[in-house]
Amino acid sequence: ATGTNTMTVTTLDDGAASDATLKINTTNGATTIAGTIDGAAAGEGTLLIYDDDNGAAGQIATFSSAIGASKKLKAITVGTANTVVGNATWDSTVAATTITVNGGNHADEDSLVTASGAVTATTINVNGTTNASATSTILDVNADVTSPTINITAGTADAGADATLKVTGDITASTLFKFTDAAGQGTSLLDVDGTTAQTVTGAITASASGNGDITVNNAAGVTFANNIGAVGTEIGTVTIAAGKVADFGGRVDAGAMVITANSATKATFNGLVTLDSGGSGAGTLGIGAASTIKI
Question: How far apart are CA 95 and CA 71, in angstroms?
Fold first, then answer.
């Protein structure tokens, strides 16, 4: 459907032997869904958002009201894995047990979800396509993210099949925060780009040495409360952009670090820093002119 579809309250009630699924297919054009969507009980109901025009850019589904605010959904899936694209805008808060964003199967099928409100889940998956195409998958949250498990998994068949989580608020991932890449293929990325101070809580790990890059794009400062990488399985490259600020509360194991030249660029390290060329990085530390490092 196209245009605005008004549903005052939608309740998804799973049965004993089947799931209640609401499918939003934007094949005929962009659409706006007005009205709240909830489970009949916490952890019930599936919301599937996609555009089945194969080989074409996806149209946007805009949700103007909260999803899972009173009773979280079981699952929200945007795009069907490696098949068709999904594009969504969430104007309010979103809560589900599992939230997954999948890339499509064509170079034009970039999946993008933009969230204005807080996103809460048990597991968040941002998955690059396994198709041989330079298809990006992005979850861009302009608020806080709370999810014990966060998986950012790049595509496996094209160097441009990146998977990216962008967040302007705090990130709380208490159980698992993992980057997964395939050698020589797409890159898993975390971009923290708020305008007020941010905190990232939870150890950030890599499935193999050199997997995953982190970019700090916040002049007000990003604090990483826990370790980044681990001995023997360091992440890829940590970049602090020009004029941005980062405070690393734990140890950092990475393939490389870039502290970009600017008098306002600042990096504070409160633990051991190891830059290892065993993975994708060169094992180098680049310190730009006029930047500041505190150890």
Answer: 8
